[in-house]
Amino acid sequence: MRRDFCDGVGIARLLNATLVLPKFEAAAYWNESSGFADVFDVDYFIQQMDGFIKVVKELPPEVALKEPFHVDCSKRKGQFDYIESVLPSLLKYQYISITPAMSQRRDRYPLNAKAALCQACYGSLRLTRTLEQKAAELLEAIPKPFLSLHLRFEPDMVAYSQCEYPGLSPASKEAIEAARGDRKPWTGELARTWRNRGKCPLTPNETAFIFQALSIPTNTNIYLAAGDGLMEIEGLKSIYTNVVTKSALLSGEDFLNMHGNTKAALDYFVSINSDFYVATFFGNMDKMVAAMRAYKGLHNTLFLSRRAYAELTSKGLDGKELMQALWLAHKEDFAMGRGSALPDCFCDFKS
User: Fold this and answer.
1) Which CATH class is domain 130-153+201-336?
2) Most buried pick, 130, 194, 258, 346, via CB within 10 A?
3) pLDDT tens, residue by residue, 242-259
4) Which of 31, 33, 56, 29 is nearest to 45 (CA)?
5) Would you state the pLDDT for residue 274?
6) What is the CA radius of gyration of the chain?
7) Which family does this protein fall into (predicted)?
């Protein structure tokens, strides 16, 4: 949502349009419907965007009665230009809603739109005072120094990947099956090809194995930036014993009443302020965290290679031989203390 909102700011500047603060879609698997103002400091955002774009909290009454004309910018093939494809609808209907997409690369925006987007991402979006205080409390409670690990092995993620894993517990299998819907797992040669392309999330056990290959000490303090539905976590905790979670460190009714968006905001805050950040996936949160850490000068960021793990194990490597090969696959990024998402952080902060 943070990524899409930043994109929305850039698009509003491209189109010379007024931006209305968005309403978040309800996430069924989180059972919540929290809004923009529940996560971000609205007044601060509007103040900081002054001079870049005009932002309003609500629509004028005469406009609010109308349904917006919806423009779907997602899943477009080839080069997609917002001015050519979206501006005519804005001029005709005056009030539109859009689905942002990366079809038009942000680093190709004109300077005024790029400046607005960068200001939104890195200078204007901050958590509400209450949420930031809770995040600071969480950060203070984590033993130092620590590594923030964004581990993606929830039922919906595994179901979406269409991958199968032998040896999972009955509870994990049941949860994945319940989340599958129409997404049936690949089988046979298709499954092997899919896995070798790096499409299958790393399990906690595989993550622990790669950590050992990188000689990360087993007594490392690890903050688990993950949702409540994480599966097979004992595969990590049985080897790395100093793993902490937000639910173990925070208490009180205010935390218990938090939903997915606000809990994810806690993970984001902790991750951009951690001594080290490691991700097992290359998702939207990981890209945003890596970019913000680069902005803050914190380059100890690493993305574990699902593709390398899959290709090496498909060749029959295991034990010390597999560990050595995994070390070589991660050596450059690990030694440099950087992650492969940094090119996505295209803003020139010093100019």
Assistant:
1) alpha beta
2) 258
3) 999 999 999 877 787 787
4) 56
5) 97
6) 22
7) Belongs to the glycosyltransferase GT106 family.
Relative orientation angle of helices 306-314 and 319-336, to the nearest 10 degrees: 160
Contact 310, 163 (CB under 8 A): no
Q: Helices marked H in 41-187 — which ranges?
A: 42-48, 61-64, 82-85, 87-93, 111-119, 129-141, 155-161, 170-180
- Give the span between the Cα atoms of 308 and 330, in whole angstroms: 9
The CA-to-CA distance between both ends of the chain, in Å, stands at 28
CA distances (Å), origin 18, targets 81, 91, 281: 19, 12, 35
Distance CA 136, CA 138 (A): 5
pLDDT surpasses 90 at 197: yes
Q: Is the dihedral of CA 105, 110, 116, 119 positive or negative?
A: positive
* Rounded Cα distance, 53 and 244, in Å: 41
Contacts of 132 (CB under 8 A, 6+ apart): 126, 269
Per-domain residue ranges for the chain? 1-126, 130-153+201-336
Kindly report, residue by residue over 309-319, the tens digit of the pLDDT. 999 999 999 99
Instruction: Give the predicted TM-score (pTM) of the model.
Output: 0.89
- Nearest residue to 267 via CA among 291, 249, 285, 241: 285
pLDDT of the residue at 349: 45
Q: Identify the bridge partners of residue 96 per DSSP, sorted by sequence position.
A: 69
Q: Which two tokens stand for residue 221?
A: 């303090």
Q: Which residue in 188, 179, 135 sits closest to 156, CA to CA?
A: 179
